Amino acid sequence: MEIRLLVTFEKVAGVLSFTQAAAELKYAQSSVTSQIRSLESSLGTELFDRLGSRIRLTEAGERLLPYARQMIELADEARAAVAAAEEPAGTVNIGTMESLTSYRLPALLELFHHRYPKVRLSLRPTLGDETRQALRQGTYDIGFLMERETEHAGLESEVLTAEPLVLVAAPAHPLSDRPALSTGDLAAVQLVGTEPGCPYRDLFEEELRERTGTPPPFMEFGTIEATKSGVAAGLGVALLPRVTVARELAAGTLVELAWEPPFTLFTQLAWRRGKRLPAQVRLFVEQARRLVREQTEA
Predict the structure, then answer these.
(1) Which of 28, 49, 223, 298 is the most exposed place for a label (fewest CB within 10 A)?
(2) Nearest CA to 148 among 241, 264, 242, 243?
(3) What is the DSSP string of 114-169?
(4) pLDDT in tens, 176-205
């Protein structure tokens, strides 16, 4: 079996779309179809059921997939060992989220840009379940998660740091001078937040609903920067990772309210269980671990 055919098979199996696989592999769709048919011919069995515009793996395809992944990973290791390159090279596909990309990762991205120019970092913005699914399918090499749970089915994960959360408001907000706040005190307060699916937004909403019995009033913004602007303009309060509002708290454009979140989130790195991480991915993990540790100790 040719490795290039297995690479195409793994990609199609991951996204369950010939069209999407062709786009990500930068092939014509006809080439992807031809390669899959060639692989099926060599194995003497169909690997995908064609269901109109949809496809799914056959039982034979399901059995082949873990072997294909192992063979691809071994081929990558063999190439790296033979090349014995002194300078790391290759692509790292990374699932991440805005709060980490914008506030935790700039130093890491700068390091790779200057010190490891042959390593290409491809950042894919996704959240939670979508990131985990892409890791299991092999679409991402590595993924950043910010979750309460630290164990995830089918994945290996490493906690980089606990991620402190802070409830913020404009300095003139009526709650800004209160020495202590309960969850009940927030029942009638206008809340500003990012979109549903964001882990701290979802946990905050769940906590308020359980304590007050009613859905909390959220004004949704698409990004953290927009959320902070809305809060600074007096539109409401927001729960955000402390790292995202450190500058505004120091400048006094936002203030921290005296409410302690009853949950803890952990920033984590995750990858598919059993996956042999290529050298450039291992390097990324090592540097991410080091830089986040330095940030939290500073």
Answers:
(1) 298
(2) 264
(3) HH-TTEEEEEEE--HHHHHHHHHHTS-SEEEEEES----TTEEEEEEEEE-EEEEE
(4) 999 999 988 888 889 998 888 889 999 998
Tokens of 208: 């308020």
Rg (the chain; Cα; Å): 23
Distance CA 292, CA 106 (A): 11
If you count DSSP H runs as helices and E runs as strands, how many of each does the chain have, helices first?
11, 12
What would the DSSP string read from start to end of 44-74? TS--EEEETTEEEE-HHHHHHHHHHHHHHHH
Per DSSP (E only), the strands in 74-118 are 90-96
CA distance 32 to 18: 7
Tokens of 240: 């955000």
Residue 66: count of CB within 10 angstroms of its CB: 10
Which residue type, as a one-letter code, is found at position 296?
T
Tokens for 102, please give them.
């914008």
pLDDT in tens, 70-122: 888 888 777 766 765 567 888 999 999 988 989 999 999 999 999 999 999 99
Closest of 64, 79, 77 to residue 8, by C-alpha: 64
- Length of the chain equals 298
Domains of the chain from N-terminus onward: 3-83 (1.10.10.10), 90-162+266-297 (3.40.190.10), 165-263 (3.40.190.10)
What pTM, to 2 d.p., does this model score? 0.73
Say how far apart CA 193 and CA 171 lie, in whole Å. 18
| Secondary structure (3-state) at 205 | helix
* CA atoms lying within 13 Å on the CB side of residue 137: 19
Structure tokens at 108: 């890491």
